[in-house]
Amino acid sequence: ETDVRSCAGPAGNLASARVRSATVEVMTTTGGFEPADLLAQEQRLSLPSLSENDAVTLGITTLGFAQARSLPVFIEVRRVGRVVFRASLNGTSADNEDWARRKAAIVERFGHSTMYERVRHEVQGITFNEKTGLPLSDFAAHGGAFPLTVNGTGVVGVLIVSGLPQVEDHALCV
Predict the structure, then answer these.
(1) In 53-90, which positions are buried (b, 16+ CB within 10 angstroms) versus exposed (e)?
(2) Which residues, at least 6 apart from 158, have a Cβ–Cβ distance to it below 8 Å?
(3) Residue 13 three-state SS
(4) pLDDT tens per residue across span 2-50
(5) Using one digit for the tens of pLDDT, what is the confidence trace for 112-163?
(6) Going by C-beta distance under 8 Å and a sequence separation of 6 or more, which residues neighbour residue 150?
(7) Are strands 74-79 and 82-88 parallel, antiparallel or unpaired?
(8) Distance between CA 80 and CA 134 in Å, rounded?
(9) What is the spatial distance between Cα 16 and Cα 82, in angstroms, rounded to a whole number?
(10) Which residues have C-beta within 8 Å of that of residue 66, sequence separation ≥ 6?
(11) How far is CA 167 from CA 32, 55, 104, 144, in A?
(12) Do residues 105 and 117 lie in contact, with contact meaning Cβ atoms separated by under 8 Å?
């Protein structure tokens, strides 16, 4: 494997995008992540609580991280299906907002990160949309939406980033 990029997200965690040697299958576009590792990441990043104020703070922290690096991203934080924070930086477009909507739909329906849902289907040799029958127009299994999970409660929200390649969108979330 070759390490092609690393990005520490607002929580201070390190996500590395790795690609396999020249024998990478065209369908695999997710940096060599494994489903079990992505599930462990979700568990490791679960929260003791998440108020609306906490969700806004998470959005502001993510925004500050993106601004400091001049990243062209759209950021949204939802809590219990309601948008509590939204920001668009230079270089984004309305398309990024639509990507965010479709990524959020996956986390809100399945309770896992979009990267996990994409990778778990890729390892089976099929795309998320083919397997579930859900339309790409409403459900985008592309990295960049991460569940906000409260210990003992479950998923209560989602952090969404759109504007970078999907591995980098995911890395900014974590």
Answers:
(1) ebbeebbeebbebbeeeebebbbbbbbeeeebbebbbe
(2) 77, 78, 104, 107, 108, 145, 146, 147, 148
(3) coil
(4) 222 333 344 433 333 322 322 323 345 667 899 999 999 999 999 999 9
(5) 999 999 999 999 999 999 999 999 999 999 999 999 999 999 999 999 999 9
(6) 46, 47, 48, 49, 50, 156
(7) antiparallel
(8) 22
(9) 30
(10) 73, 75, 89, 161, 172
(11) 10, 22, 16, 7
(12) no
Sequential DSSP letters for 77-95: EEETTEEEEEEE-TT--HH
Residue 103 near residue 162, CB atoms below 8 Å: yes
**CA nearest neighbour of 102 among 70, 130, 142, 73:** 142
Tokens 């396999």 correspond to 20
The pTM score is 0.83
Q: Are 21 and 36 in contact (CB under 8 A)?
A: no
- The helix (H) or strand (E) run that includes residue 74 is strand 74-79
Question: Which pair of structure tokens corresponds to residue 118?
Answer: 């994409």
